[in-house]
Amino acid sequence: MKNAPWWISEVIYQIYPKSFYDSDGDGIGDLAGITQKLDYLKELGITMIWLSPCFQSPMVDNGYDVSDYRKIAPEFGSMEDMDRLIQEAGNRGIMIMLDLVVNHSSDEHEWFRKALTDPFYHDFYIFKESDHIPNNWRSVFGGTVWEKVPGKEEYYYHTFHRKQPDLNWENPSLRKEVISIVRWWLDKGVAGFRVDAITFLKKEDYAIRPEPDGVDGRASLTGFGYDVDGIGAFLEELKKEGFDYKPCLTVAEAYGVKEEHFKDYIGDQGYFDLMFDFEAADLDYEGDWLHPTNWTIREWNDKLMNYQMKIQPYGWCGTFIENHDQTRAASKYLGDHARNPEAVKTLGAMYFFLRGIPFIYQGQELGMVNFSRERIGQFDDLSSHDMWQRGLEQGLPKETVMKLINRRSRDQGRTPFPWNGEKYGGFTEGKPWLELTREYPDINAASQAEDPESILSFYKELIAFRQHGKWSDCFKYGNITPLKSHEKVIAYLREYGDKRLYCWFSFADESLEIELPEECSDDSWHTGRDLYIKEDRLTLLPRQSVILCQHLP
């Protein structure tokens, strides 16, 4: 593909540093631990690592509350450890992407401490003089978005936790500081940024919302707080003055972007290279975790395909089924078949070959599954504690609330990585900061590494097929078109030049007869031991993936 962006061939692996590998026995994963496991990642076949935040932080929100953007949190190591990780990863052909958290900082950041007394830094944040809470907005983590400044009739604004005050992007001096941070890390050798909560930067008029949506009388920011008119000026400056300083890949966590703004967010002239879609990832609840949905494969298919078709004219998205804010995909999407290797493989193949840059979250390549906790005290996640309180306030039985939290807690994806079947899964010699899932004696990297039929081996095959196979350019550059199929099948066509790939992914319990659209058997790829094609019919086995390939004359 002429003029293809350099990052089109990347396969990105997200690491939650606190839970990947602990090198010093304190129960917390660290940068040195990641460096020790680079050969595992090289063998897997990934080309870039996205690190969740490892900056200095009081860890109220596990690093998404930054107190110094130019220092490493001591529990993760030192700046020398970061430099070594960048260098050693580079020696293996792997680049490093950082999580850039600049909608807010920690209240322990020097800027915020100075803001309480220094007029210059006061304008780095959003303060309102008032003798009462300024409006009825609810923060993402529950409660009001306003926190009173001690000793003053003044409040500061926080989209998330009260110890994560929002930065005031209306202030040019603040924007200049953020841009200098971006340039500083690019000079250090990082290859890109995943930009956190970026659609929250521009605020509305702070008016009271006339229609609260909870028993607390507040209105959720998720109804109106995203992609506010005027945000583009901030993002354009960030791109031109920051991201364009050196070649890098930028990925927006772009909740709530309106379709008419896709062309502004991505593409040749977009603020970012990629953005994440959450329509399919959040299909299992409506509004909040306390309102689960009984979704169907057809609804899941429609959400995936609708987004693929909407974004295709403008650029690429990051495709994913797991991350640090999501539960384990096998449990969420496969239900009773979460431990069925064939089902897990088809789930992986289905999303991996969509149009976009594939992201793998740590442990996904092992088919990790959700845990079940019995007490709210076993959870670390702020959102889980918020939902516990809100559920009880709404009068739900404790057993019901606990079941809903287990179903959707962000801790599901944050449990330590199981390297082997030994105590604590080989993650640490100390006590892990968060309990592991109970399945680590069965699901771990060591037990799968030498098994050619394992899920780990399958992910290696997936990556090699996309990156280096005969049909690689079609996966990387090709367009996508939905294919009509059975209600329990996700199907699509990938096309590039004279190549066509017909893709079917069954989530059915029974075999299905699929009418082939045309002669398309120049080549094939499939899961399961057998492929059944007779004349113009494909027999799709339960939970099987099939790709039929065609070279046009």
The percentage helix is 25-40%
Helix-and-strand structural type: alpha/beta
Strand elements, count: 25
Radius of gyration: 23 Å
- Give the CA-CA distance, first to last residue: 20 Å
CATH architecture of the largest domain: Alpha-Beta Barrel
Low-confidence stretches: none
The strand line-up of the biggest sheet is 1-2-5-10-12-13-16-17
SS element count, helices = 16
CATH topology of the largest domain: TIM Barrel
How would a textbook summarize the main sheet?
Answer: 8 strands, parallel, barrel
- CATH homology-level superfamily of the largest domain: Glycosidases
Envelope shape? globular
Kindly provide the name of the CATH class of the largest domain. Answer: Alpha Beta
Average pLDDT level? 96
**Tally of distinct domains:** 4
The share of residues in extended strands comes to 15-25%
Notes on the structure:
- With 553 residues, the protein is α/β, with parallel strands linked by helices.
- The protein folds into four domains: 6-104 and 172-372 and 413-463, Glycosidases (TIM Barrel), CATH 3.20.20; 110-157, Oligo-1,6-glucosidase, domain 2, CATH 3.90.400.10; 374-408, no CATH class; 478-551, Golgi alpha-mannosidase II (Immunoglobulin-like).
- The chain has 16 helices and 25 strands.
- Strands 1-2-5-10-12-13-16-17 form an eight-stranded parallel beta barrel. A five-stranded antiparallel beta sheet has the order 18-19-20-25-22.
- Helix 8 (262-265) links the parallel strand 12 (249-252) and strand 13.
- Helix 11 (341-352) runs parallel beside helix 15 and helix 12 (382-393) packs antiparallel against helix 13 (398-408).
- The chain is globular, with a radius of gyration of 23 Å.
- The two termini are 20 Å apart.
- The model has no long low-confidence stretch (mean pLDDT 96).
